[in-house]
Amino acid sequence: MSPSLPPSSRSRLSGGSAIGREAPPTTVVWDPAMTAYDFGPTHPMAPARLELTARLAQDLGILYRPHLTVLAPDLATDEELARVHSRSYIESVHRVSEDPASPLPLLGLGTEDDPAFAGMHEAAARLAGASLLAADRILSGDAVHAVNFGGGMHHAARDKASGFSIYNDAALAITRLLDGGLERVVYIDVDAHHGDGTQGIFWNDPRVLTVSLHESGQTLFPGTGFANETGGPNAPGGAVNIAVPAGTADAGWLRAFHSVVPAVVREFGPQAIVSQHGADSHRDDPLSNLEVTVDGQREVMNSVAALAQRHCGGRWIATGGGGYNVHSVVPRSWTHLVAIASGRSLPVSTPVPEGWAEKVRQDFGVAAPETMGDGVDIWWRSWETGYDPSNPVDRSIMATRKEVFPLFGLDPWFD
């Protein structure tokens, strides 16, 4: 079992490190066909971010690690999709997919966020199938960790598309784990945007704890995810939301994560963790107002892996999500995710391979980052250092702790 991370320190994980004594069997679900999830050349969710991630992980040798298996997904069937989405909605996606000229904006299909395109159903069902395959590998024991960096479509609701998301693959993976015999699953979402779709799907399900760390809905889509959103009548405390203010950087973001997430995960006692690692919390992302770095994102990835090791026998499914700095942020962030899931993280000082950098220059006309990190100090303060009511991040943390900690039998001031 990996040691717990220090509550307040410069990262002891700035170099490469192993999650456990032995590298866990890991599945990465990837196929170039997943880039067919394409809303068009002017849409911010460019499929090139997936291709660049796969290429970077390959060029760094991560995809060749002996305990790592790369598998291509099948399309999720309509029956599988119906475990989370309404049949009428699935039929509507089929209809728009076959005839993009007849959008259904009331269902979120054919909107500015989710433009209709031919083959939409198949493209979205493939991403969903990837997370279902990840769940099947965990259930069968063929993998302890599984990664679908093409997934993380967390805004999709039961009967509506939203925020670039058609089918909610993370919710499908969670449901598959529950159907396969698990009794409790934690969902951890660190995308800059609130994981509203996944929260809504499991709002009243006591078997699932959804935790979202995001920029406040006062300044960012979808305008939800406040501290007082804590779950339905059958699942009090089943939703935990940490809404940090715009401008929050590594120190505040990491303090917020560690001041809430480990405690509620410990008390819930999950048998698996499903996480969403949208890279749009980065300071260079065009669609959010946070100031997090790749180094900070990597620290949270290591922390989620440690939580899975500590509480779930390692069982962990990691997905991608948002992230719209296509060439310099998303591929580095998600390559770190694959490396960490496969048991050995990359030092942030690792040079970016020249072949990959040349591809970025050729395809985007810009210089690639030189290393796998942003060259920052990600020092952060633990909750034990005290609550500062003048600090807006601390006020956000305390708002969440006051709402949910008593529901877990915890003291919001001291635990």
Automatic annotation (TrEMBL):
Q: What Pfam family is a match, any one?
A: Hist_deacetyl
Residue ranges, annotated region (Disordered):
1-25
What is the protein named? Acetoin utilization protein AcuC
From the UniProt record, give the pathway where this protein acts: Ketone degradation; acetoin degradation
Keywords, A to Z, come to: Acetoin catabolism
Q: Which Gene3D superfamilies match?
A: Histone deacetylase domain (3.40.800.20)
Give start-end positions of Low complexity composition bias: 7-16
- All copies of the Histone deacetylase domain together span 43-339
Against InterPro entries, the record matches this protein to: AcuC, HDACs, His_deacetylse_dom, His_deacetylse_dom_sf, Ureohydrolase_dom_sf
Its family remark reads:
Belongs to the histone deacetylase family.
Query: What's the domain of life for this entry?
Result: Bacteria
Keyword set includes Nucleotide-binding: no
